[in-house]
Amino acid sequence: MDDAVRAFLTEKVAQEPYARHLGLRLVAMDTGYALVEMDFDENKQNIHGLAHGGAVFSLIDEAFEIASNSHGIMAVALNMNVTYMASPRLGTTLRAEATEVHRTVRTASYQIRVTDADGTLIAMCQALVYRKKDKAFAATTSPMAKEDVAAGEGALST
Length: 158
What we know:
Thiol Ester Dehydrase, Chain A, HotDog_dom_sf, single chain, hydrolase, acyl-CoA hydrolase activity, 4 helices, Acyl-CoA thioesterase, Acyl-CoA_thioesterase_PaaI
């Protein structure tokens, strides 16, 4: 993995307010790959006391974001299809592992698996990104050009 891309992603992930709020932790990354963890606590429960789907989705999205931008080209989400397999027990650590399955010049597909501390499969996701022409790490404050934001491009973080 390119050192400049690694440094950029490491810094941006550490500064990301939403990821910090959820307690998401980047464990490992490489080109086309990311591993992110999150503790499942009472703040991430739904009305039934089970894992909130939004919390699990956020964990998936963070791993997807890192893996898909690891080539140094800005990637934005086009589609994410999540299947929830099981509910984790309170207090466990959840791990999302994103792996690149296929990549072209303009799109790339990823598989993201969420497991608990015992290795139980909690959720699976098939995801697709659009790879823009912009370098992900070209700007110091944001990889997105202001014109793209004004035009509504790059609405998703991944």
